[in-house]
Amino acid sequence: MSDTVPETEIREAEIPEAEIRQEAAEAEAEDAYDPAAPAPLNVPRTPTGNADVDARLERLGDADHLATDGHIEVYEDVHQGLRDALTALDARPGPPAPSPSYGHRS
Fold first, then answer.
1. Which of 58, 68, 81, 101 has its CA 20 to 30 A from that of 41?
2. Collapsing DSSP states into helix, strand and coil, what is residue 106?
3. Contact at 8 Å (CB) between 70 and 37?
4. Disordered: where is this region (predicted)?
5. What Cα–Cα distance (Å) separates residue 57 from each residue in 33, 79, 80, 96?
6. Which phi and psi (to 5°) does residue 76 adopt?
7. How many CB atoms lie within 10 A of CB 16?
8. How far apart are CA 81 and CA 69, in angstroms?
C-alpha cells in the first residue's frame, strides 16, 4: 500500500474554488435550458359555453408537459370527447313535429 496521495486528488486541490463554482454554474445553466424538453405552447382557449367541449379543450393543456410521443394519447382522447359531444347534440330531442292539420277535413 502506498502512502502517496492519488494524482487526481492533487489536481482537484490545485483548481481554484472560483473556477469550480463557475463550472458548476455553467453546467446548471446547460441543464436549465433544454430545447428538446416539453414546453407549454400557451395557446389561449376561449370558452365555448358548452361544459363538455370546454373540458375537452382544457385537456389539450395536458400535452404541454409531455414529450411529443405522449401527445397522441391526449389528442385522441380530446378528439373522441369532442365527437361524443357532437353526437350528444344530434341525439337531443328537438321540438315536437307539427301535427298534420290537413288530415282532418270534414
1. 81
2. coil
3. no
4. 1-51, 85-106
5. 28, 10, 12, 33
6. -65, -40
7. 8
8. 20
DSSP state, residue 47? -
The string of pLDDT tens digits covering residues 22-49 is 777 676 666 666 777 777 777 788 899 9
Q: CA 61, CA 45: separation in Å to the nearest integer?
A: 9
Torsion of CA 6, 10, 11, 16, to 10 degrees: 150
Buried b / exposed e along 36-69 (16+ C-beta atoms within 10 A):
eeeeeeeeeeeeeeeeebeebbeebeebeeeeee
SS3 state of residue 70:
helix
pTM for the structure as a whole: 0.51
Q: Is 96 helix (H, G, I), strand (E, B) or coil?
A: coil
Nearest to 68 by CA among 36, 92, 94: 36
Cell 489536481, located at residue: 11
Determine the residue type at 17.
E
